[in-house]
Design brief:
By secondary structure, the protein is α/β, with parallel strands linked by helices. The protein folds into three domains: 199 residues, NAD(P)-binding Rossmann-like Domain (Rossmann fold), CATH 3.40.50.720; 96 residues, N-(1-d-carboxylethyl)-l-norvaline Dehydrogenase, domain 2; 145 residues, Rossmann fold, CATH 3.40.50.720. 40% of the residues lie in helices and 14% in strands. It contains 17 helices and 16 strands. An eight-stranded mixed beta sheet has the order 3-2-1-4-5-6-7-8, with helices on both faces. Strands 13-12-11-14-15-16 form a six-stranded parallel beta sheet. Strands 9-10 form a two-stranded antiparallel ribbon. Helix 1 links the parallel strand 1 and strand 2. Helix 9 packs across helix 11 and helix 11 runs antiparallel to helix 12. Bound molecules: nicotinamide-adenine-dinucleotide (NAD) and uridine-5'-diphosphate-glucuronic acid (UGA). Nicotinamide-adenine-dinucleotide (NAD) binds next to helix 1 and helix 5.
Amino acid sequence: MKISIIGAGYVGLVTGVGLASVGHEVFCVDVNEEKVKKINSGISPIYEKDLDKLLKKASSKKLISATSDLKSAVLNSDITFITVPTPSQNDGGIDLSFIKKISHQIGIALLQKNKYHLIVVKSTVVPETTQDIVIPLIEKYSKKNVGQFGVCMNPEFLREGGAVYDFMNPDRIVIGQLDKKSGDKLAEVYKNFKTDILRTSLNNAEMIKYTNNALLATLISFSNEIANICQQTPGTDAFEVLKGVHLDKRFNPILNNKRVNPNFLTYLWPGCGFGGSCFPKDVKALAAFAKKKNYNPLILSAVLDVNKKQPLQLSSLAEKNLGTLENKKIAVLGLAFKPNTDDTRESPAISLIKELISKKAKVSVYDPIVNSNNIKSPLSGLNFKFANSLDDAIKGKDACLLVTSWQEFKNITPELLKNGTKNPLLIDGRGFFDKKEFEGKTNYLPIGKNINKKNIQTS
Ligand code: NAD
Ligand code: UGA
């Protein structure tokens, strides 16, 4: 099939490369000429494992190309996927300006087409967007009635860092369909993907995407709330507590005498909060949508509130144990919102760094990938420095605060901490280190554990 994809970012390019890999002919469209050039020379503008390799392979078979000419891409294809951004507005509501612009442009292109064309919304959009915004705009500018063109809403569930794998091995394909003809055509696109296909309404498909992200974000904030209660309660350790909960057979069934250990349990662990380009924006968008529907989303609001405060648990633990943060040398370990990505959007590290600076700490930051030369959204105006290496980051510090679970941080040992001139406090914001290795040997403080200050060694 001939497929155009509007917006060649994380979702658009991965979808394009994935669909080309199963034999479709794909035209990626982007306003960013640099991206278009790179894609046409077989180089991925974003870092995702295997993306370059598959892009090169598909390019060599002439199954994928990029252009900034939306109209010709739409006219040369049978199906158009919309994968443009849907960011947050200042009030947290969804900004649909990209979606509106593209719907308008697709409509204008379809004015010149008499053959049936299917439009697939893949961007994350709040319920009723496809029905009430995308369809009317395409109808208006194409001068056609819906039905003469088909429409589907097909949410994407890939994760950054494993985007290609997730796309090529989906756990489900949700097809929100205007009508059977639209759904059948999209199902044909995915015929080589062996997974569960859920065919449903446009509004349900939109809501499934938000419900999924909001549930995962809720598990994280719930675990963090438990951790914060444990922190105030002598003799408790949130990681032990949640380990006990993970053994509930309803969450973690036993099959053939073995625990299944479902992946979702990893979201039921305490940490220093969720970040990235999706959870924060999507929970905010769903909450704002609910309010528009005259429903006060109490749980979603609490999920966001807990998450906003959670990174500050690390600075507050440091302050309690050091007495003050003023002039204390603090290392923040990790700037990316999660390991294996260079994405720093909404990273908990950012609000933590701001808090530490506001308390007059001397902050240095170390991330195995993100540094001053490649950071995509610079933290302008913030007074901190980047450390050149892990050793450099730790040496001579009063406290090291772990934010991102990068594998490189496993190189931190009690001995390495003592190598410096000081024996810094190590605050583990992710339950990342083996407690047995650190407790009693160094000033180790995990979140979610009530530790009497008397038990902490002083340097
Ligand atoms: P992105 O910012 O990586 O990519 C969007 C692309 O659209 C950019 O390359 C941009 O240049 C392009 N673009 C903007 N305006 C355009 C226009 N008028 N014409 C053509 N191209 C245009 O965004 P993304 O992360 O791929 O997210 C896209 C959508 O997918 C969002 O709704 C997001 O919530 C959703 N989503 C993202 C992920 C993820 O992991 N990133 C996962 C699932 C769903
Ligand atoms: C998330 C969802 O997992 C994807 O299914 C979805 O498609 C995507 O949002 C989206 O809609 O854009 P992503 O943000 O790439 O994907 O990454 P996750 O690995 O889910 O991490 C999100 C946040 O949760 C991170 O801050 C991470 O640190 C935190 N997290 C993640 C945990 O606290 N525990 C985990 O086990 C995994």
